[in-house]
Records
---
Amino acid sequence: MQEHQIEVSLGIKVEPVENVYRANDFKSLNEINRIIRIFEIKNSQQMKHKIFALEMLSSLKALASKN
């Protein structure tokens, strides 16, 4: 989802002067926290995949250099 879609779907008001989201009820606040957790998990998984790919590449290079 894009930021604008999230704002519209949750009815969140953006305060550009203070650069914060105003969530007036508990449901909106929980939804924002859920979205943040999703992005944190996504970033963590991307890092794990990058590390795994680097390990595989280094193994392949080591194998290729021995032959």
---
Amino acid sequence: MVSQGLWMKESGGGTKKSCQRAYRRLTKDLAIGFKNALREYWMYVYEMARSLCIQYGAIDTWSLYNTIELIWEHMPSGGLYEIAISSSGADMTAMIRVGGTGAINPKTGKYVDYAMVVHDGGPNPRGGGYFFPRPFLTMAITQSEGMYQLIMEKHLNKASMQFSRDY
């Protein structure tokens, strides 16, 4: 792993002012880079969750799959009918929510209120059987850990390179 840092030197030939300007720009670029990195990461996790929902076979009527949504700058409602993963940072919050009262299962004619049972496993809330766990959200996060590091490095290295050019 290559370690990067910011190196500053002052020659007395106006470098202090140029360094100050470059540093002000760097702080803005880092904030933008961090926000862009988080957005790119959550888009990746969202797509991974959708893919894993299919791979785990949680698609009997596609109702649960169709409720998977990526929401920006919104907090989980804490509703009993949904499951969510979320994070906050850089003045933004992202959340992937699945299930809830916003969709109807065509087989049952009822809300898609079984997301937690499908994800974590447990007795069928409608009776008759047991759902084995299909942790597509948990696995989406787990399988995206390496991508998080790559995305952060990409965006933060871009800001660092701009600083080097400015200074």
---
Amino acid sequence: MATNVYPWKENLACVSTYKILVNMQQLSGAKTKFESAADLKLGRLSYFPSTTASPALIEMAAMLITREYSKLLSRDYVIAPQTSGGTWKKLMRAMEAVFADKEKTIRDLAEVVDSQVKFGDE
């Protein structure tokens, strides 16, 4: 059974996800270009603990990067819920869950952001 893969393209959701991570210096070691960033696993980014598998530390790291990421996102974009049931709290929880999973990718993060935020190009 085929699954739908979120399209990585030059729209505001994908570009903002990439640029924010670059500005946060999360991709600095990887030297990753936009075109090849989609499938980079979050466990390879700078914020993710590499010396421990402690769920408490991973959860704390995910919470901290979510706060920093959301601050930059809201600074650069007017955040409007994609759906009437969308809230800032729901977006934060969804992003935190993605950031806490080392197997998730930058594409997964962009998909979560795009599902909760209405960007100007939509």
